[in-house]
């Protein structure tokens, strides 16, 4: 890619030798060897935007000798001129009065550096305020430094916001022949033979010698920025050391045919250097390109053809004239080669003299101290006759626009170079810099992915918040599914043009106006390298055979051995040399992206549990729609876009695990996810991952598929438990919203084993709608329904009368059905459950059930219901007359009997039924009546019982009843009262006796507390033993007595 347009001829026919040049605004100042200063005006044409030049003024004999170097100081609006070993300042535009810098005598070179520095104020007010005690604030100041290299010393002049500062000097061991600033505090000196790094704050220099240990030239990536100054080189003798400032952190020094990058610490700033076929005659720098002038006969005319010599091919030819080589300071690759004579748009209209085709010397003159385009050079015919006739010419090199350069690099697939170039451009010059950076970074990541640098590529995609659909598209169909894009479609997918074929990019680096022969003499190092690396023979790669030749030195990475070059060349054409490693990297990307997506979705209340079964499947979205999703942070996406991203990420993660980590599929399937089932289910089935399929279906609420899968798998089992248990366990976990699915999928299980199938409806994890389950089971088998209702009532604590009534009705219907089919065993079992239910349950409707049973022969059930209705006489009649079960009749009476209530006469009612039958019966009821009187005589009214007995019953038959009825009480209440009174009287007498006790106090009686004689003191007598103490000792003695007793 040629970054510069073809040189434009500005001035021709200059008879004087141009020695220096500087541009300031719209003025071009040219210093000559005769001490004259030519001032040209630069104007931009309105029609084509090109610049025109016009001589404005000539300062004759401004100096007595050659003007060796020119510069400009904006702070003081003065031209800096080096002539006769003296630096002089000429104010513009008058050029008078000149100010010679006397301290800078015997000067060899100078350099100017201008920067904005934040400087603390030097003094404060006499009376400090509270703000003065805070951190002092720095003031932005425009600082310009003029450094003059003199004989064995350096002199520094400086200005701050246009105010001159104190002049500083520092002795040096040698004389600086060239100076380049590396930031505001450091400068690099070129001595006649060596180099030194000078610290401005310390005013000391550190020498370093060359050559330094270097490595073979390779492509260097790093972005260079922040250039703030550039030294305009004078055009002295060719033996003068060459030195360039490339950035604030590195300088380029020339030693023989090698260019070394040196940092402020005097150490190599880069691992790779520049190698020329021969030492360059001149060098210059226009950010970010390095210009070098190579002598005639050193650059091959057809580099690609010349590097593959054969027996039938002549030796390589070289360009017979001086060549201007333009090399990128970022990649160190040759970007453009322009041989002399230069081809210009107006060359066809100019008269061509016979001498114009001869060679000429080319001398580079930098345009401005900021290392910006354009660059000017001077050509002078080598032939003296031609030089005398034609004179010298000044040419202008204009760089193409940044946008055009970057776009050309992208078209050629040189994304890393495009990024590095982009980093050198200020955002003010390129407003869409960040958008371009994002796009090119993505394209570079694709290039890294193609080169098996998977981690670096994925890290870029993560950093750019790139659409995961496009990231997954880089993988084969086994991972990406229908999103997979072939390698030739990767670059267009990521917004870039398809790279040009090698044949289209390997031959030309000239401008668009170059001739075919000139194009043949120029080439693109990168494309040529790729081409050479693909041609291998038994003797090794072409690169190895070319090592040491002129062309080999021009190729990047020339120091690699044959094997390394061969392996490298083969690897370039392998898209996926390690699928496993690439998928591992993808898993890292997806695992990093997944929790972020989950958090973003939860923020808008979207989770797989509540949404995964309602959103449209990923398969319904077109590939174009998925690729069109934005490359934005998750916070900038809509919920619909977040859902699509989640589906893409989880589906790709499933497929990746299926390939490299099958053991983790189970855990991934069991957690909530957004995986697209249709993309992975066939792969899971083919690999026999049925448990993972079931979990996946379950997570997606695709229960019909999961249950069908379990049914299909059950056909392979012979044991009934192994056959049915998986389906039963799955159905037990489904909620009421899937009740239809549960009913549909449980039919075949009920047909296989009803007892096991019943577990489906008794799950403790979920609560199914009981009414619907009861209806479903009753349609299949009333016994199952009754069993379910029993479970609901007994263990589910169901209080609704509807379920209790329904269970009673089912018992009743089953009893009649069993009787109808003469199944006595079943009838007894069900009838027993009915009797127990209606006897113990109080939630069902008794009236309603009795209405159904009243016309049947279920007499015991009718009797229990009549008793529940309070119609005890009718219930007892059924026990006695219909069932003739007298013990149950008595049990019924004992169960309902309550003294002092309406049921206190229930035994008398039973006796009346025995002795006064209301229906005609042949049974002898007298004996049951006598047995009732014998067993329950206390609960029978004696008078009414005797009235009911028939006359033929003897006293002996009811002897026990009569004795019990006629027995009198043993104790009269008056006796009890008198005994209680006598007891109270006895206790009262004992108390009086205790309280009337006397003590005798004599002169010799001692107090048991203080052991002193009582005498006539006030005393206290203690009960119950009558101890006597002083009155004042009573409390202490009483306390002691209590302690002794306890």
Automatic annotation (TrEMBL):
InterPro entries, A to Z: CHCR, Clathrin_H-chain/VPS_repeat, CNH_dom, Vam6/VPS39/TRAP1, VPS39/TGF_beta_rcpt-assoc_1, VPS39/TGFA1_Znf
Keywords carried by this UniProt record: Membrane
Membrane among keywords: yes
Source species of the chain: Crucibulum laeve
Any GO BP: intracellular protein transport
Protein known as: CNH domain-containing protein
Membrane protein topology class: Peripheral membrane protein
Record domain CNH: where: 13-353
Family under the similarity heading: Belongs to the VAM6/VPS39 family.
Cellular localization per UniProt: Endomembrane system
Annotated PROSITE patterns: CHCR (PS50236), CNH (PS50219)
UniProt GO cellular component terms: endomembrane system; fungal-type vacuole membrane
Pfam families: Clathrin, CNH, Vps39_1, zf-Vps39_C
Protein origin, superkingdom: Eukaryota
CHCR repeats: 760-919
């Amino acid at each position: 890619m040629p970054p510069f347009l073809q040189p434009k001829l500005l001035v021709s026919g200059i008879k004087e030798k141009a020695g220096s040049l500087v541009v300031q605004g719209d003025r071009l100042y040219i210093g000559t060897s005769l001490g004259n200063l030519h001032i040209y005006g630069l104007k931009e044409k309105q029609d084509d935007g090109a610049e025109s030049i016009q001589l404005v003024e000539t300062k004759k004999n401004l100096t007595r000798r050659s003007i060796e170097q020119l510069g400009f100081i904006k702070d003081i609006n003065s031209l800096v001129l080096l002539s006769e070993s003296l630096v002089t300042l000429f104010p513009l535009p008058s050029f008078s009065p000149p100010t010679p810098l006397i301290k800078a005598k015997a000067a060899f070179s100078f350099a100017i550096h201008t920067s904005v520095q934040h400087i603390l104020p030097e003094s404060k007010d006499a009376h400090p305020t509270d703000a003065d005690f805070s951190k002092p604030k720095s003031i932005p100041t425009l600082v310009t430094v003029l450094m003059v290299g003199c004989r064995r010393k350096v002199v520094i002049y400086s200005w701050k916001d246009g105010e001159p500062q104190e002049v500083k000097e520092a002795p040096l061991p040698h004389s600086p022949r060239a100076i380049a600033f590396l930031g505001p505090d450091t400068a690099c000196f070129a001595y006649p033979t060596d180099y030194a790094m000078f610290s401005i704050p310390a005013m000391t220099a550190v020498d370093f010698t060359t050559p330094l240990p270097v490595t073979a030239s390779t492509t260097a990536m790093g972005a260079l920025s922040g250039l703030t100054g550039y030294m305009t080189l004078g055009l002295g003798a060719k033996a003068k050391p060459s030195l360039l400032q490339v950035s604030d952190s590195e300088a380029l020094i020339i030693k023989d045919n090698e260019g070394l990058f040196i940092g402020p610490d005097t150490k190599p700033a880069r691992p790779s250097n520049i190698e020329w076929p021969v030492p360059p005659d001149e060098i210059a720098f226009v950010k970010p390109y390095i210009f070098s002038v190579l002598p005639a006969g050193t650059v091959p005319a057809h580099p690609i053809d010349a590097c593959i010599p054969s027996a039938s091919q002549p030796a390589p030819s070289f360009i017979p004239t001086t060549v201007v080589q333009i090399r990128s300071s970022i990649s160190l690759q040759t970007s453009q080669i322009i041989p002399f004579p230069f081809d210009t748009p107006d060359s066809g209209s100019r008269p061509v003299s016979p001498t114009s085709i001869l060679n000429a010397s080319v001398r580079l003159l930098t345009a401005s101290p900021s290392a910006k385009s354009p660059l000017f050079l001077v050509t002078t015919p080598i032939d003296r006759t031609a030089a005398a006739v034609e004179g010298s010419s000044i040419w202008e090199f204009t760089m193409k626009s940044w946008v055009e350069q970057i776009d050309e690099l992208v078209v050629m697939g040189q994304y890393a170079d495009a990024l590095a170039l982009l980093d050198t451009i200020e955002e003010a010059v390129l407003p869409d810099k960040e958008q371009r950076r994002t796009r090119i970074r993505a394209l570079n990541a694709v290039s890294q992915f193609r080169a098996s640098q998977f981690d670096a590529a994925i890290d870029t995609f993560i950093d750019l918040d790139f659409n995961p659909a496009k990231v997954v598209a880089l993988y084969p169909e086994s991972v990406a599914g229908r999103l997979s894009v072939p390698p030739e479609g990767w670059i267009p997918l990521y917004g870039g043009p398809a790279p040009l074929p090698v044949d289209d990019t390997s031959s030309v680096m000239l401008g668009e106006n170059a001739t075919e022969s000139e194009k043949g003499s120029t080439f693109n190092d990168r494309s040529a390298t790729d081409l050479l690396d693909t041609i291998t023979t038994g003797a090794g790669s072409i690169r190895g055979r070319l090592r040491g030749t002129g062309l080999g030195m021009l190729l990047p990475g020339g120091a690699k051995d044959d094997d390394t070059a061969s392996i490298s060349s083969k690897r370039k054409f392998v898209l996926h040399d390690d699928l496993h490693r690439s998928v591992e990297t993808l898993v890292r990307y997806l695992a990093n992206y997944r929790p972020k997506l989950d958090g973003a979705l939860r923020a808008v209340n979207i989770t797989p549990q509540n949404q995964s079964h309602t959103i449209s499947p990923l398969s319904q979205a077109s590939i174009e729609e998925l690729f069109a999703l934005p490359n934005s942070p998750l916070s900038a996406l809509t919920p619909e876009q977040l859902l699509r991203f989640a589906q893409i990420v989880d589906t790709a993660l499933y497929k990746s695990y299926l390939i490299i980590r099958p053991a983790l599929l189970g855990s991934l399937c069991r957690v909530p996810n957004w995986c697209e089932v249709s993309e992975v289910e066939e792969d899971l089935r083919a690999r026999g991952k049925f448990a993972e399929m079931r979990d996946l279906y379950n997570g997606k609420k695709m229960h019909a598929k999961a249950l069908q899968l379990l049914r299909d798998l059950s056909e392979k089992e012979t044991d009934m438990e192994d056959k049915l248990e998986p389906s039963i366990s799955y159905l037990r976990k489904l909620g009421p919203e899937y009740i239809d699915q549960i009913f549909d999928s449980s039919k075949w299980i009920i047909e296989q084993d009803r007892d096991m199938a019943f577990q489906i409806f008794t799950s403790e994890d979920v609560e199914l709608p009981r009414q619907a389950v009861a209806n479903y089971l009753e349609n299949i088998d009333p016994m199952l329904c009754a069993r379910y209702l029993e479970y609901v009532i007994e263990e589910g604590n169901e209080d609704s009368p509807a379920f209790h009534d329904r269970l009673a009705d089912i018992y009743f219907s089953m009893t009649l059905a069993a009787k109808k089919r003469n199944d006595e065993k079943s009838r007894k079992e069900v009838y027993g459950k009915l009797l127990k239910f209606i006897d113990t349950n109080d939630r069902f409707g008794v009236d309603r059930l009795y209405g159904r049973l009243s016309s049947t022969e279920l007499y015991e059930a009718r009797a229990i219901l009549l008793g529940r209705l309070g119609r005890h006489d009718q219930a007892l009649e059924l026990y006695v007359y219909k069932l003739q079960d007298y013990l149950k009749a008595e049990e019924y009476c004992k169960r309902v009997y309550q003294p002092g209530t309406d049921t206190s006469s229930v035994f008398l009612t039973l006796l009346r039924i025995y002795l006064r039958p209301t229906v005609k019966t042949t049974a002898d009821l007298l004996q049951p009546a006598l047995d009732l009187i014998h067993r329950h005589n206390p609960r029978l009214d004696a008078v009414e019982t005797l009235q009911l007995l028939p006359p033929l019953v003897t006293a002996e038959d009811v002897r026990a009843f009569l004795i019990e009825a006629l027995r009198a009480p043993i104790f009269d209440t008056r006796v009890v009262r008198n005994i209680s009174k006598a007891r109270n009287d006895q206790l009262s007498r004992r108390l009086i006796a205790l309280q009337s006790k006397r003590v005798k106090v004599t002169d010799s009686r001692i107090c048991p507390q203080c052991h002193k004689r009582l005498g006539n003191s006030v005393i206290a007598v203690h009960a119950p033993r009558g101890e006597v103490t002083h009155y004042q000792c009573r409390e202490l003695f009483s306390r002691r007595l209590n302690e002794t007793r306890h």
